[in-house]
Automatic annotation (TrEMBL):
<dbReference type="InterPro" id="IPR001789">
    <property type="entry name" value="Sig_transdc_resp-reg_receiver"/>
</dbReference>
<dbReference type="Pfam" id="PF00072">
    <property type="entry name" value="Response_reg"/>
</dbReference>
<dbReference type="GO" id="GO:0032993">
    <property type="term" value="C:protein-DNA complex"/>
</dbReference>
<dbReference type="Pfam" id="PF00486">
    <property type="entry name" value="Trans_reg_C"/>
</dbReference>
<dbReference type="GO" id="GO:0000976">
    <property type="term" value="F:transcription cis-regulatory region binding"/>
</dbReference>
<protein>
    <submittedName>
        <fullName>Transcriptional regulatory protein QseB</fullName>
    </submittedName>
</protein>
<dbReference type="InterPro" id="IPR036388">
    <property type="entry name" value="WH-like_DNA-bd_sf"/>
</dbReference>
<dbReference type="GO" id="GO:0006355">
    <property type="term" value="P:regulation of DNA-templated transcription"/>
</dbReference>
<dbReference type="GO" id="GO:0000156">
    <property type="term" value="F:phosphorelay response regulator activity"/>
</dbReference>
<dbReference type="InterPro" id="IPR011006">
    <property type="entry name" value="CheY-like_superfamily"/>
</dbReference>
<keyword id="KW-0238">DNA-binding</keyword>
<dbReference type="InterPro" id="IPR039420">
    <property type="entry name" value="WalR-like"/>
</dbReference>
<feature type="domain" description="OmpR/PhoB-type">
    <location>
        <begin position="133"/>
        <end position="232"/>
    </location>
</feature>
<feature type="domain" description="Response regulatory">
    <location>
        <begin position="4"/>
        <end position="117"/>
    </location>
</feature>
<dbReference type="InterPro" id="IPR016032">
    <property type="entry name" value="Sig_transdc_resp-reg_C-effctor"/>
</dbReference>
<dbReference type="GO" id="GO:0005829">
    <property type="term" value="C:cytosol"/>
</dbReference>
<dbReference type="InterPro" id="IPR001867">
    <property type="entry name" value="OmpR/PhoB-type_DNA-bd"/>
</dbReference>
Length: 242
């Protein structure tokens, strides 16, 4: 399994030591020396673990960043910094999985990093085992391809085979617009019959089964004259990148 570790810290020597000790052919290390740079990585990469310094200089609070980081991706987070007891408690409450106070002892930090990566690998392995394939999560919607199950707002949703395939296609590519022709050709694996309204009918049925009205664009958006998409998720990290 290829994994990616993000290190958000302005200590160049420490970041270099982490890279030297943990990087491998299976693990890539990405560095970010400011919260804004880290936010851009979080918004564009699937991460296996994050090492986050909570006390970087600047106008952005490391604790606010930690809270948004926890909401963005379900990876383990190791927080470091010169922290008081109250700050360590706050960091745990905001989503840190492990905290190491500065000055950092490199052997402890490396051992803790390996422990977090083992946790990530274990959690992903169990998720694959339990679902028969990785589940897709989008807002309050979950799709399991292996079991072909759909959960919306905590309740199971019964979809036909084609309805599931259409929804899975959209959920695999949130924010990407698919034309009716493309949806048909991807799902049916044959040319789109000119003038057919079947995709329109399928989208209406999917919306209804998910408990969405035709005017509700919070999940499925109709891009008139173009096609359909799952509405792009506006990340809290967009604020850091402005």
């Amino acid at each position: 399994m290829d994994m990616t570790l993000l290190v958000i810290d302005n200590d160049y020597d420490l970041v270099d030591q982490i890279r030297r000790n943990v990087a491998s052919t299976e693990l890539g290390v990405i560095d970010a020396f400011q919260y804004q740079a880290g936010a851009r990585v979080v918004g564009s990469q699937k991460l296996s673990a994050v090492i986050l310094n909570l006390k970087l200089p600047g106008s952005i609070s490391g604790f606010d960043f930690l809270k948004d980081l926890r909401a963005a991706q379900p990876m383990p987070i190791l927080a470091i910094g010169q922290l008081t007891e109250a700050e360590r408690v706050q960091a745990y409450r905001l989503g840190a999985d492990l905290i190491i106070n500065e000055p950092v002892a490199l052997p402890e930090l490396i051992a803790a990093t390996h422990a977090l990566l083992r946790r990530y690998f274990h959690l992903n392995h169990m998720a694959r085992f339990q679902t028969g394939g990785m589940a897709l999560h989008y807002k309050e919607l979950t799709l399991s391809q292996g079991r072909r199950e759909v959960i919306m707002r905590g309740r199971p949703v019964e979809l036909t085979a084609k309805e599931f395939d259409i929804l899975y296609l959209l959920a695999s590519n949130p924010g990407i617009v698919f034309s009716k022709e493309t949806i048909y050709e991807r799902v049916w694996r044959e040319d789109y019959p000119f003038g057919s309204q079947c995709i329109t009918d399928y989208m209406s049925a999917i919306r209804q089964k998910l408990g969405l009205t035709s005017s509700d664009s919070s999940y499925i958006e109709t891009i008139y004259g173009v096609g359909y998409r799952l509405a792009p998720i506006v990340s809290k990290f967009d604020e850091y990148c402005d």
